Amino acid sequence: MSERVLVTIEEGVCHVRLNRAEKMNALDPAMFDAVLSTIETLSDNSSIRVIVLSGEGNAFCAGLDVSSFGVSEDGPSDLLPRTHEKANFVQQMGWGWRQLPVPVIAAVHGICFGGGMQLMAGADVKIIHPDTQCAVMEMRWGLVPDMSGYPLWRGNVRDDVLRRLVYTNEIFSGSDAQQFGFATETNDDPLARALSLAKTIATKNPDAIRSAKRLSNHMGDATDAELLTAESVEQTGIIYKPNQLEAVAAFFEKRPAAFE
After folding, report:
1. Does residue 260 form part of some domain?
2. Other CB atoms within 10 A of residue 260 CB
3. Could you tell me if 97 and 125 are in contact, meaning their C-beta atoms sit under 8 angstroms apart?
């Protein structure tokens, strides 16, 4: 992986770290490339059971590094082409984490602005330090959030609250982020909590975990009938299979499960 992103894998837990601490992990072109490459690589790794996403240094991610892009005719003027199925390459920075086949847990601390908020939004579970400084910052630069924040925040963040925060780009705390729906929970040590939760998830039937993520991803836009059918399809693919039987056997024999 690029030095902009560090990746370690241990016992099914993959830890992805944004690695530009001297710039509060701000998103420059090299960081964009590294994150997108990392997402693509992880999507093909069947040994991974859960992912933890964090930032090195004193911040999770300070958002777009405006100075590294500048304003010129060479900048991206057309964001309409879909380069990653539903998303363009910018949106894939957030949307890509949601589309990975395994759960993603974000551990957020320090600063989480703009694009950082949308990176966090792509995670299944978001754990944030209560004193983290957060902002939907794009309006400061005369822009709107466009890294998949809107579809990822939908259903989590109250509509009128989101409108206020987008229109004003005001700074709010990690505690507020949890109350507003941007984060799942607060913790004084987000990374330790995220890794602990990841280790728990890694002990579960990996087939069922992946099925559960697919079902969760369907909830935003599927009809009731489609979700009912999807439940049945997923369960049929799991029940009485070796990993499901091993989960039952391990429970009754009071031992760790040995999944395939």
Report:
1. no
2. 9
3. no
Residue with tokens 């016992």, as numbered in its chain = 11
The answer to whether 165 and 136 are in contact (CB under 8 A) is yes
Neighbouring residues of 183: CB distance < 8 A, sequence distance ≥ 6 = 108, 120, 126, 127, 128, 174, 177
As a whole number of Å, the end-to-end CA separation of the chain is 27
pLDDT in tens, 191-218: 999 999 999 999 999 999 999 999 999 9
Q: Assess contact for 144 and 163: CB atoms under 8 A.
A: no
Q: Are residues 140 and 221 in the same domain?
A: no
* Among the listed residues 190, 198, 151, 164, the one whose alpha carbon sits nearest the alpha carbon of residue 48: 198
User: Are the beta carbons of 112 and 134 closer than 8 angstroms?
Assistant: yes
Its pTM surpasses 0.85: yes
Look up the domain containing 77 and give its range.
5-201
The encoded tokens of residue 212 equal: 């559960």
Band of residue 1 on the pLDDT scale cut at 50, 70, 90: very low
Do 33 and 143 lie in a common domain? Answer: yes
For the chain, the domain total comes to: 2
Measuring CA to CA, which residue among 164, 160, 133 is closest to residue 63?
A: 133
**Can you give the CATH number for the domain in which 90 is found?**
3.90.226.10
Give residue-wise pLDDT tens across range 18-47: 999 999 999 999 999 999 999 999 999 999
pLDDT of 89-140, one tens digit each?
999 999 999 999 999 999 999 999 999 999 999 999 999 999 999 999 999 9
